[in-house]
Write a structure and sequence with these properties.
Blueprint (H helix, E strand, L loop, with lengths): L11 E4 L1 E4 L2 E9 L17 H26 L4 H18 L3 H13 L3 H17 L4 H5 L1 H16 L13 E5 L4 H5 L6 E6 L7 H9 L3 E3 L3 H5 L5 E5 L4 E4 L3 H22 L15 E6 L5 H6 L5 E5 L13 H14 L5 E4 L26 H7 L1 H14 L5 E5 L5 H20 L11 E5 L2 H5 L1 H7 L2 E4 L1 H9 L17 H16 L4 E3 L10 H6 L4 E4 L4 H9 L3 H12 L4 H11 L2
Parallel strand pairs: 3-4, 4-5, 5-6, 9-10, 9-16, 10-11, 11-12, 12-13, 13-14, 14-15, 15-16
Antiparallel strand pairs: 1-8, 2-6, 3-7, 7-8
Helix pairs in contact: 1-2, 1-3, 1-6, 2-6, 2-8, 3-4, 4-6, 12-14, 14-15, 18-19, 22-23
The chain binds phosphoenolpyruvate and magnesium ion.
The site of magnesium ion has 4 residues, from helix 18.
């Protein structure tokens, strides 16, 4: 690690994407994940091919041993961080043992007659090119994992030690091009104050790790890597995306104050955990949590969640080439239901399509996966899959209250078809003598398509509850791909069109006397709580971290006093004036 004198002693302010809230005040620790993969290419004779291939296999076995150690270390990272990193390390492990990569390198040693290091770099280069050209963002992002495996192989061949983030100075703010899962596993959370990386979005490893470790984090652009020097003072504001190098005494004072305020607020919010979420005028609101992994249960219970409002079941289908059996799904779901100790768990059936499950299905994604065969459409095409999932959920429902949620429903017929299939599953389970609850779990639908919102009255007649998925509702209403950074400036859940669809769905649910929740990201934004409750929403489901602040807002709210302002918002069609009106309600 170079330790040059800082280029500038003056304060420098950078703005990036805020991915993990909080304020860090510390010192720069630079980390270059792509450095030092310099190898010497050597031609070898045909007679040396076998021994070189043997050397490669030995190096792969050593690298695999190191990854195994990291897998052990990853287990001590809390919650989603440990699990996320664990999955990726599993993938490294697979690549290092008899995979297409290792076979490819072995072949290349023979065909190109080069040393193992050169063969690794050539093979990795070709794989990286092929992956980077893929249109699927998820697969394109796997390029970094392939590079990391290549780097480990070369290090193992040359005997050079792998980098580690284990011996960091106190209050280190890691400034890196990116953090690989392997880097993260060696990271000592007690010494890290914050993270600044160049790569990654709100769903990147950096973001997931930062949120689970409660670290302030910003994704910035590469100017900061040119400027930041080891040991330089740095401030990271994970709420606004601001990074300050060599902060002035004034900035230091401001941010010290801000940090103290955050700590005070966190302490006071913790006291609200057991307080029921009731408005000043006595309206009780259900505050639920969204989860993606069973390991999140502990933190959502700690945060005071009254149940799981959205259990994204996709995790059981990801990072694998086969499908989970009914038994495996049953085990996963019943674990969650049991751990929730009698609190309701809303399980959403699979919400992806052939674009994400390509490996497990022999199915080509359509020309536009976002508008294609996905979510409930996919499940209804693959009935065996739906049968297994419904059967697993129904069996798990004897362990505690469960609700079944169908994603991306656009017609009443889809609900009716699911009901028919559920009837078949129930009869089959009864024939097998399996105990089922009476009544059976409620069956609800996501309102995440504009057409579903506009036809909400018809859907309500066939549904036991609604969950409004504002993330997709916004995407489909405004024709904005929610993962496309180029049009992110237009992604606005507060667009009058989206708000009207939410209001319309809430009214349809009220008329049919069925419960309605919001489980998109806006449910966790305390500035929008008053508006959503004003629409008649009585249940909000969000990530555990957002729950205490939303509760604080509810406790301070007098719903009857804001009804006039909510009406004005619903009749306002100018987005700018609407923004001002919403701001007035934000509390
Ligand atoms: C939504 O679309 O608002 C939602 C909650 O589902 P997801 O984010 O999983 O698509
Ligand atoms: Mg959705």
């Amino acid at each position: 690690m170079k330790s040059k004198k800082p280029k500038s002693q003056h304060e420098q302010v950078f703005t990036g994407m805020a991915v993990g809230a909080g304020v860090a005040i510390g010192v720069v620790y630079r980390h270059d994940s792509r450095s030092n993969v310099h190898i010497r290419e050597q031609a070898i004779s045909a007679a040396k091919v076998r021994s070189e291939q043997h050397r490669l296999l030995e190096a792969a076995a050593r690298a695999s041993g190191e990854v195994q150690k990291l897998q052990g270390e990853a287990k001590r990272l809390p919650g989603a961080a440990g699990e996320e990193i664990g999955y990726l390390l599993d993938a490294y492990q697979q690549m290092l043992s008899g995979s297409r990569l290792i076979r490819g390198v072995q072949k290349r040693i023979a065909t190109d007659q080069v040393n193992a290091e050169a063969a690794v770099m050539r093979e990795i280069g070709l794989m990286v090119e092929a992956f980077a050209a893929m249109e699927n963002r998820y697969l394109a992002a796997r390029v970094d994992d392939i590079r990391e495996v290549g780097r480990r192989l070369v290090e193992s061949l040359t005997g050079k030690k792998t980098r580690a983030l284990a011996n960091l100075p106190k209050n280190a703010v890691i400034v890196a091009d990116e953090l690989s899962p392997a880097d993260t596993a060696t990271l000592d959370p007690a010494h890290v104050a914050g993270l600044v990386t160049l790569v990654g979005g709100v769903e990147s490893h950096t973001a997931i790790v930062a949120r689970s470790l409660g670290l302030p984090a910003v994704v910035a652009d590469d100017v900061i890597l040119d400027e930041a020097q080891n040991g330089q003072a740095i401030i990271v504001d994970g709420a606004t995306g601001t990074v300050i190098l060599s902060p002035s005494p004034k900035s230091l004072a401001t941010y010290r104050k801000r940090k103290a305020e955050i700590l005070r607020e966190q302490k006071s919010l913790r006291k609200l955990t057991a307080v029921p979420a009731v408005t000043k005028d006595g309206v009780a609101i259900k505050l639920m949590a969204n989860i993606e992994l069973p390991s999140e249960i502990e933190s959502i219970l700690d945060a005071g969640a009254e149940g799981v409002g959205l259990f994204r079941s996709e995790f059981m289908f990801m990072n694998r080439k086969d499908l989970p059996s009914e038994e495996e799904q049953y085990k996963n779901i019943s674990d969650v239901v049991r751990q929730m100790q009698g609190k309701p768990v809303t399980i959403r059936t699979l919400d992806v399509g052939a674009d994400k499950l390509g490996a497990a299905f022999d199915m080509k994604p359509g020309p536009n996966p976002a508008l294609g065969l996905r979510a409930i459409r996919f499940s209804l095409r693959r009935k065996k899959l739906l049968l297994a999932q419904l059967s697993a959920i129904l069996r798990a429902s004897v362990h505690g209250p469960v609700r079944i949620l169908l994603p991306m429903v656009s017609t009443v017929d889809e609900i009716r078809e699911v009901k028919k299939i559920m009837g078949r599953v129930v009869s089959r389970l009864k024939r097998r003598g399996v105990k089922l609850p009476d009544p059976l779990p409620p069956l609800g639908v996501m309102i995440d398509i504009p057409g579903a919102a506009l036809a909400a009255d018809a859907l309500a007649a066939e549904s036991d509850f609604f969950a409004i998925g504002t993330n997709d509702l916004t995407q489909y209403t405004l024709a904005i791909d929610r993962t496309d950074e180029q049009v992110a400036y237009l992604y606005n859940p507060l667009h009058p069109a989206v708000l009207r669809l939410i209001q319309f769905s809430a009214e349809a649910a009220a008329a049919a006397r069925i419960p309605v929740s919001v489980c998109g990201e806006i449910a966790g934004d305390h500035r929008l709580t008053a508006l959503l409750l004003g629409f008649g929403i009585s249940e909000l489901s969000m990530s555990a971290a957002s729950l205490p602040r939303v509760k604080k807002r509810i406790l301070a709210l007098n719903l009857s006093a804001i009804s006039g302002r909510v009406r004005r918002i619903t009749s306002e069609s100018d987005p700018r004036r609407l923004k001002d009106l919403v701001a007035e309600l934000s509390g």
